[in-house]
Amino acid sequence: MSRWAALGQWGRDAVRLEQLTGGAANDVWSVRVNGTLAVGRLGARDDADLAWETRLMQHLDNAGLPVPLPVPTTDGRLFADGLTVMTYVEGGPPETSADWRRVADTLRELHRLTQDWPQRPGWRSSSDLLHAETGTKMDLGAMPAEAVARCRAAWARLAGRPACVVHGNPANPGNVRVTADRVTLIDWDEAHVDVPELDLVLPGNAAGLGGGTYDIAAQASAAWEAAVSWPGEYADRRLAEVHPA
């Protein structure tokens, strides 16, 4: 039986419509639930991981930050058998420098609202990985020692800064929906607790990071992407952006 049979827990009329781009880790579709367009994401996250994400969405919504909200099953659960259903978000990707500055403002509000938020279960921050070998979706033990040293040197430059929830991939235009009056970050699958600068490496330095901070953050972000996607061509490309230790 297809794992998408879990969609039936959102109602007998719940149906998949069209497959969407959701990255390698998840199967993402537009769905119709209770006659309303929504987005279903089916992946391998466990219940603790999904509970963290859905609780975060509710917290941000309560604080006034636009986010996709979990749509409950018919018996009130926010996820079932690895499947989450989220409200559909209108809008298009950021296109102008002004759009990206609005994205930066939204990210800073996210960071402000999530200081002291607990770490996502099973995940590690870049500061944790200065000493830990595994966590999140990475295994530093599988990387060459020189590559690990380069990544850790990049992360060490940001160590000790106050941590908060980071979205994880806001520079991807597909993860942002912009309208005239709202900026909404979608696809929170990579969100976790880390230093906020990792979120602020945006096109055109839209966050206005100065004093060498943009280069430091860009190095740390590239190191994270290299480690989390190791091995492969993409990981090699991102590692090449990280200065030798």
Q: Can you describe what's shown?
A:
It is a single chain. The chain is an alpha+beta fold. It has 2 domains: about 5-85, Phosphorylase Kinase, domain 1 (2-Layer Sandwich), CATH 3.30.200.20; about 95-240, Aminoglycoside 3'-phosphotransferase, Chain: A, domain 2 (Alpha-Beta Complex), CATH 3.90.1200. About 30% of the residues lie in helices and about 20% in strands. It has helices spanning about 45-60, 95-115, 145-155, 215-230, 235-240; strands spanning about 15-20, 25-35, 35-40, 85, 135, 140, 165, 175-180, 180-185, 190-195. The strands form 4 sheets. Strands 1-2-3-4 form a 4-stranded antiparallel β-sheet, with no helix packed on it. Strands 5-6 form a two-stranded antiparallel ribbon. A hairpin with a 2-residue loop joins strand 2 and strand 3. The longest helix is centred in the middle third of the chain and has 17 residues, at about 95-115. The radius of gyration is 18 Å and the shape is globular.
